[in-house]
Sequence to fold (334 residues):
Amino acid sequence: MAAMGVQVLLGGPMGPQAMKLLSSKIQVPRDCIRAQDEVHLILEFGRGETWGDVEADVATRFIFSNDVSNARMEPLEAFFGQLEQFGPDLVVLSGLHLLEKEKDSFRQTRLERIVHVLRNIPEGIAVHLELASMVDMGFLKKIATEVFPVVHSIGLNEQELAFLCKSVDGPLHAEVLDGGQPEIPAVNDILFWLLNTYGHSEDNPTSRFSRIHFHSLTFHVTAALPGFWGNLPSATAAGSMVAPQQACGEDDAITPADTDLKIPLAFPLSVQHPPLRRRIVQYDSYHPVTSWIREKVEFALSPVLVCKKPIRTVGLGDAISATGLLYSQFKGTQ
Fold:
């Protein structure tokens, strides 16, 4: 976001080495500054590379971390203590997955504190939660039940969507990753179910939850409840465009020689909803973004140009969600 000219308040533990790398547009609360850097070691490897007798099917990464401050959400109070003075238009929260390794009592205490500070953010400020890979179904279900209602938006990928859906007894979680790549109609049905289950409605009037940004290697889908968000197609397209730029390491325009298109050239929009199951979308390179409405829920789908020789895999989801949010119009809670 700072690279796009946005002023950012960063609530994270920052040691001397990390501080040197920050843009001048990024402010750090005084109480978040540490004498020593926390450690995240990221090993990225390309498709076909080997480690012993194991060969990588796709370009990906392996992450080690020794980050006690983030794992215990220590910067939380310092960040929210400075929020009113900073005057944000958007608050982005991530890192809840790091609480998994903590004891149940500590996790619940921190989760309750997070819910409290998020609930006290003024209505006109959009709040987005970016999810990450987790293994504890019970804890993820708590996040869905307790945190989703106090945020306006979430972002997640196919592994995270499948595990979330399984954790909350949602539909079609097995179909999301059937054959290794997410099934477009199954993803759409799950997003619809999540918004209807946890989103703002007459039955759930105190919930702020109204938007989901799903991102995978080959396509992105944004789904939103009516009246809360604008510019959905453009925001979804913007997120899908930044993905190959980040992966290929290109600041300029991506060329056809750099990328592949890997979505099906024809696909239905639903598994469970007959009118959309019968509607087959034909890919059109001149109009690549597909928009539709299902029972007032607005959808936008954009294909992704997949980088043939990625040099970067880490942080793509964060860049995608951040770009999609920057191009979104938040209209506030009704």
Observations:
- The chain has twelve helices and 19 strands.
- The mean pLDDT is 91.
- The CA atoms of residues 12 and 70 lie 7 Å apart.
- The first strand starts at residue 8 and ends at 9.
